[in-house]
Amino acid sequence: MDLKSRIAEAAERVLLTNGLAKTTTKEIAKAAGCSEGSLYNHFKSKEDLFLHVLRNQLKNLMAALTSLQSLAGTSPVRDNLKRVALAALGDFNASMSLICSIFSDPNILYRHREGFTERNEGPHRANEAVEAYLLKEKQLGRIGDRVDARAAADLLLGSCFQHAFQLNFLGREESLEEQAQFADRVLDLLSPGLE
Amino acid sequence: MDLKSRIAEAAERVLLTNGLAKTTTKEIAKAAGCSEGSLYNHFKSKEDLFLHVLRNQLKNLMAALTSLQSLAGTSPVRDNLKRVALAALGDFNASMSLICSIFSDPNILYRHREGFTERNEGPHRANEAVEAYLLKEKQLGRIGDRVDARAAADLLLGSCFQHAFQLNFLGREESLEEQAQFADRVLDLLSPGLE
Amino acid sequence: MDLKSRIAEAAERVLLTNGLAKTTTKEIAKAAGCSEGSLYNHFKSKEDLFLHVLRNQLKNLMAALTSLQSLAGTSPVRDNLKRVALAALGDFNASMSLICSIFSDPNILYRHREGFTERNEGPHRANEAVEAYLLKEKQLGRIGDRVDARAAADLLLGSCFQHAFQLNFLGREESLEEQAQFADRVLDLLSPGLE
Amino acid sequence: MDLKSRIAEAAERVLLTNGLAKTTTKEIAKAAGCSEGSLYNHFKSKEDLFLHVLRNQLKNLMAALTSLQSLAGTSPVRDNLKRVALAALGDFNASMSLICSIFSDPNILYRHREGFTERNEGPHRANEAVEAYLLKEKQLGRIGDRVDARAAADLLLGSCFQHAFQLNFLGREESLEEQAQFADRVLDLLSPGLE
DNA sequence: AATGAATGAGCATTCATTCAT
DNA sequence: AATGAATGAATGCTCATTCAT
């Protein structure tokens, strides 16, 4: 693996462990097994390195959302949504402290936001992706034609997001099984509204 | 107003504007119109001051949750839930950057968590409060006897939480009317599941 | 006891416990059971308070030296010297850290020195006092007429001084009996030179 | 010379001039011709730097004490002791304010003590070294077989120590000749006791 | 005389960044 | 590209002193 990737992974590790405020370039360098100077051969600044790491979060969720689009009309809606919910729970959980750290520095927040705006990406796109999927299912008649697709997406992903937030806050870990239970309970309640 | 309160309010203002990472004691003092030394006559450290400010967030939501308990059986369930949703949207919106900043420093996270554990409080209690309310309504027969009260609470507050998060992330403001629309759409979709 | 004395005694206690560098006016006030402001009603500054405390050290030794002058020709020379040695060991031991602290701040050193010069006092006077006593004994024929009285004084008090210094450095306490043994051993060796 | 040594020497200079209490990192850096930050590339803290300087005091005396052991039985005892006395007077004089400063901060005192305990060194070892030398001379029959070697060492070094202390206190300098006279007078008085 | 909140200059220390090698 | 010593601005915090009450 090249040094740039090693640095990025080391940074991610340190950031998740120590939090943005307590993450120093010295420690990143140590974790990456290189010198502090090397960081600056591959990233313009610590902030750039952080933004680079940030952009690589939520990969599983993004993949799940991409594949979700092509699942419309195939496996049961509920199964599809559950798959997304599980990916969301997993990724939100793993990345929550990184994601939240953007609010501790307006400069980072601004740059992160602009970066997403440019590429027309961003975490809020997740909700749009679920919405888009549900619209397709609506056209296919697999969910009620009065269903507010966006509201459904917001409820599903919102509950997963807050759930992950609270687990992180409480310092608790959750097994895959517990995650599945959470998804099921939420989907049980949501399902009547989708018909 | 006494200096301690002035400092706390100034700190809140600066923290919301600059983010935790860019908030200095010098700037808090300036905003409070006092010397840096005075900060330390009233708070043991910058961290303590931050935790103090943090604990005073979400006051409206907490008040709404308290009054919610006594609303069981009175006004329509949906109205009661909407009231909570609006309080949540408002408070989450106003406090999101502060709340999220706790993840940028594990020490702060730890102390904030312990503080809540001691007082048996915390943001996760919000969901429990809504759950408790819904359980009462279930006993009163105003919602279906199969309803998963906790899942309903998680969906409602979770969607509000993530909505506020995304607004903050996008740097957008939302009118009260828009907030009400969001609440309505979410509750529309949730309602069938409550019957 | 009046407040001024209470403050002085509290300061002495704190200084001996914490060392000059770690002694704060806040702690002195706490130890004296008064406010920090009161310190300044009785002493012009913390430095003045320290100098006041400093001047009240070695009281026993000074008393012993005063009474020593009138002992010339009475009890055996060796007994008189031993009495002085014991007073020196006791006082040096109790005051060493205070005495040494004057070297940590040239301003204090200067003022302490000037204070003594004015009043024609000072710790070096101790050696002169023993010298004066020995000169009397020499005139009385109780010690050899070739004896270098000042050298004898320097040897006796010097060994006591360094002994106390080293005990303090090592953090050891010494019983009165051990102190007496030290004095005896030193005087045994010194005695042949006095004849 | 490397920066670490330059910093240490600069620190020693500033400490001797200003006293521990008035020695700031800013001034040390200035005296060393480097930035304050550089201090921390070579020493963990100001305290560590001080302890480093402290451990390099009394080098001449230590050398004299080492060579003293091999002088037993060679040059006259009195000459050997005088050599030690002169080294002691010189080093005590030059280092007194540094040595005494350890009593102004219990933390420094503790760490300095522990450092010596570990390495089985320390200023009190000086007296033991002289004692050891005298014991050899006793075995060689060059001093009386009843002589209390430790008491002799304590008298000799103690008087030198206090002499240096008082010179520093009085702010006086002493020529090499005056130092030799002091040593001679003290040894004159001590000599009868050694036979 | 006694208070103690307010002060603000001063301090040790940190850390992202640079640059000569 | 890799290094790591050097930097110095910036930070949180301390504490002797003041002064209105």
Describe this entry's structure for a reader.
The structure is a homotetramer of 195-residue chains. Chain A contains 10 helices and no strands. Chain A has 195 residues and is mainly alpha-helical. In chain A, helix 5 packs antiparallel against helix 6 (77-101), helix 5 (59-71) packs parallel to helix 8 (124-139) and helix 8 (124-139) runs antiparallel to helix 9. The longest helix of chain A is centred in the middle third of the chain and has 25 residues, at 77-101. In chain A, 43% of the residues are buried. The mean pLDDT of chain A is 96. The interface between C and D is large, with 55 and 54 residues. The structure holds a DNA duplex (21 and 21 nucleotides).
SSE layout and pairings?
The structure is a homotetramer of 195-residue chains.
Chain A lengths: L2 H16 L6 H8 L3 H7 L3 H10 L3 H13 L5 H25 L4 H14 L4 H16 L9 H22 L5 H19 L1
Helix pairs in contact in A: 1-2, 1-4, 2-3, 5-6, 5-8, 6-9, 6-10, 8-9, 9-10
Chain C binds a DNA duplex (21 and 21 nucleotides) through α2 and α3.
First-last Cα distance of chain A: 49 Å
Give the integer mean of the pLDDT values of chain A. 96
Helix/strand order of chain A: HHHHHHHHHH
| Multimer state | homotetramer
The CATH first-level class of the largest domain in chain A comes to Mainly Alpha
**What is the count of helical runs of chain A?**
10
Question: Nutshell version of this structure?
Answer:
The structure is a homotetramer of 195-residue chains. Chain A is an all-alpha fold. In chain A, 77% of the residues lie in helices and 0% in strands.
